[in-house]
Write a structure and sequence with these properties.
Elements lengths: L1 E8 L4 H18 L2 E8 L5 E9 L3 H10 L1 H4 L3 E9 L5
Antiparallel strand pairs: 1-3, 1-4, 2-3
Length: 90
């Protein structure tokens, strides 16, 4: 199944994001479940969150993936949503 992970950074957390970015990208590569990903941007094009499409067996796997993300472990996010998603185009 596909799951959209939408996470919003805590206010003023760009430094936390940047300090953990390499570990996050390594995690994405190592786990092999991310099909698309990129940062959410504000009007000045500064990173303020994340949008990822995960391909997982079930919602439990998506929750475990989200909990293991170095960004999550660093306390970057004010909130994370996991929403089942249906691929139609692409």
């Amino acid at each position: 199944m596909f799951v959209a992970l939408i996470a919003r950074d805590k206010s003023g957390a760009l430094e936390t994001r940047m300090a953990n970015r390499a570990a996050h990208l390594d995690y994405v590569k190592q786990t092999g479940v991310v099909r698309q990903a990129g940062p959410l941007l504000d009007k000045e094009e500064q990173m303020i969150g994340s949008l990822l499409i995960l391909e997982v067996a079930d919602m439990e796997q998506a929750m475990q993936w989200a909990a293991g993300d170095p960004y999550s472990k660093a306390g970057l996010f004010q909130g994370v949503e996991l929403i089942p998603w249906k691929k139609v185009i692409g």
